[in-house]
Amino acid sequence: MRVICLVDCDSFYVSCERRDNPQYAGKPVCVLTGAGTRGIIVSRSKEAKEAGILMGKPLFMAQKTNPSAIYLPARIERYLEISKEVMCCLKSFSPVVEVVSVDEAYMDLTGLNEIYHQTYVELIRTIRRQIAEKIGIPVSIGLATSKTLAKLASDKAKQTGGIFCISPKRVQETIGHLEIEAVCGVGKQTARRLKQNGVFTVADFLAQPDSWVRQSLGKNGLLLKHELAGESVSAVCSEETLPKSIYHTGVIGDFSSNKNLLRSELQYHIHQACRKLREKGGFCGVIGVMLRQKNFQTDTEKKKLSSFTQSEQEIGKVAEEMLEKLFREHILYRSIGIELENLKYPDGQEADLFCTTTLLPDKLGHAVDDLEQKFGKNIVQIGWFGRQDKALKQK
Prior knowledge:
Oligomer: single chain
Number of helices: 15
Order of helices and strands: EHEEHHEHEEHHEHEHHHHEHEEHEHH
């Protein structure tokens, strides 16, 4: 029987802001998708939740009802840096860590109780304490014998002091009452189908015969049932999966029809996307440019490159031509972004054995990456006209 936990950082974006700015502790803090006078709330502190501020609420509406709350623009690059620190801490306890997102990771703890001479409950308390002490980020940890149960346990842990355990022998009494849509992997359509057949809770689902579950939901539905029963069907996988595409988008500070500003924003997103592409050792064959208007109408353009590349100069030249085609004067725009598709990895799983083109690393790009690694982000700026003031405001 496996022993698995899910580590979930609490209000991660807000926690990162509080780590860098201790004066925000104990205050209602919200992090927004955008900057300037607009944006959508994507992370809230406990105090903000208690004040009734809702996730996804536009800034102008939140400020009307809660003017004293602190509203901050998201600093995604900074959050990624802190996320790496958290994941490195987890990997110091177990070699089997599956990073799910920027603020979540599964860990396989099987057998580590003997190595650390602690019970599994004591071990997750130790992990939680070390992350708080060394990194300054609060986390909730759910402990169980399957990934599905560990996810449900981590949700419970947020209301029980940071840790929660679900024993396979006590699944029914612990989570049997939960509505079926609370289970990770059960979407709206699946939940609707189950409810039409009298399955409303986890207990109802577990009571169904395997034959009925397989017929109704297929193989994946049957695997989900076994996971909910405490059987580890889906193993924790520590192998990194190379991305099939890379996106980098963002809202601009205020609505704008300034083409130079849009070009500057696009170059910034190209740099960030290409930096990640080079970090993964990948090359791009297709690029896409996204331009979203004030009214949320989205215009996109895609183009296949003449050869695979990881150079932001080459990608940027084509992307600017695409921006010229998409841009319309007197239209106010709210966001812009880049997408890198049809990725190839010469030394990875996506390599094309029939590709005869030599994939040449972008030496200039790697040199810039090394400088940023040593001296900090944005130390070298290539064509980022108009972004300097914005970047400084967000630091």
